[in-house]
Amino acid sequence: MVSMISRTGRQLQRYNQGCRQVVGCIPYRYKFGINGDKELEVLLISSQKGQKMLFPKGGWEIDESIKEAAARETFEEAGVQGDVEFELGSWMFQSKRYGTLYEGFMFSLLVKEQLDFWPERNVRTRRWMTVEEARDVCQYGWMKEALEELVSLDLTSSKQPERGVTHCSLS
Predict the structure, then answer these.
(1) Cβ atoms of 106 and 146 closer than 8 Å
(2) Domain 15-157, CATH
(3) What is the model's pTM?
């Protein structure tokens, strides 16, 4: 059974040399056209305190693997479930709200199920978009970089590409 309450608090949060570690996913699916061609769509969500659009992400806790945390955050914030696939990279970024440094890890998530009820449905909206639309509305440079990593992948391949690039972004 899946909990319909989001985890809260920072007692179980992971830190690396003083940087809070956060994980997230770029949920994606394919939209098939009349001609049989398929177009990649990604799911963005609104921030809790505004209308900024972003990909779901949140704290990585000590009692879960990195992929479990990414799947949990995606479920809690976006109300979708699926297969956490490839690591898209890791980025260092500074919170504008708190001024603290974060280490963020992003993954691709092939959506298998979109739920009508999820923990943060009352505080977030979600919207499927084309890659071009997502590039225009996503508010954070490091998330846009993760999107470009997703687009560059051969998502039909079952072999994970070599990654390991760490990016630094203060936006």
Answers:
(1) yes
(2) 3.90.79.10
(3) 0.83
